[in-house]
Amino acid sequence: MDAGVIAGIAGAGGAAVGGLCAVWGARIGVRGAADSAQQQVRDQAYTAHGRWLHERRIDTYAEFLNVWDTAARSLRPVWETVDRVARLDATDHDDYVHVAEELLASVKDVAVPVEAMLERVPMVGPARAQDAGEVMVSALHEMRGETETRIAWLADAASSIPTRGWEPWNASDRQAMGTRQAFVEVAHAVLDAAPQLPE
Fold first, then answer.
1. What b/e sequence results for 150-171 when a residue is b if at least 16 CB atoms lie within 10 Å of its CB, and e otherwise?
2. What is the pTM of this model?
3. Band of pLDDT at residue 88, cut at 50, 70 and 90
């Protein structure tokens, strides 16, 4: 065979191999670009979800604190009312009993809206926020229990009107405010943490 024919065949073969390599390389490049685009879309979706979750947490934590504060603040006036009524020196003890019944009815369900709001906390997480919220609800129940004891004292004919003292209230109030502060600290830690992209 002529050397020129051999060179032509070799050149055509080389061109074919080169063409195949170019096509293969282009395919790898397109695949890499597609994978990169998909990863970018996933990262953007994760970031958007992180922002959405962050906003839901802010709203949920703030509403839980607001509902809890309203419930906790509603108990102190009951103690003040007991003191006021006790100083009236009513001639008929049934008057004290009647007021005590009304006051007991007013505090009976004080924790219900707080417990209902607490049910939303696990929906936005994390578990440590729910745990801190449950401790707050327990402290509110203790405040309510001390308040009910105070009211029962008013209705007790053998009680030493006009005073039983505020120390039980002060102790339960201090404990409750401590649990509130603990929840706030957990909430801040959760909200300050940047969302992590998945591996």
1. bbebbbeeeeebeebeeebbee
2. 0.76
3. confident
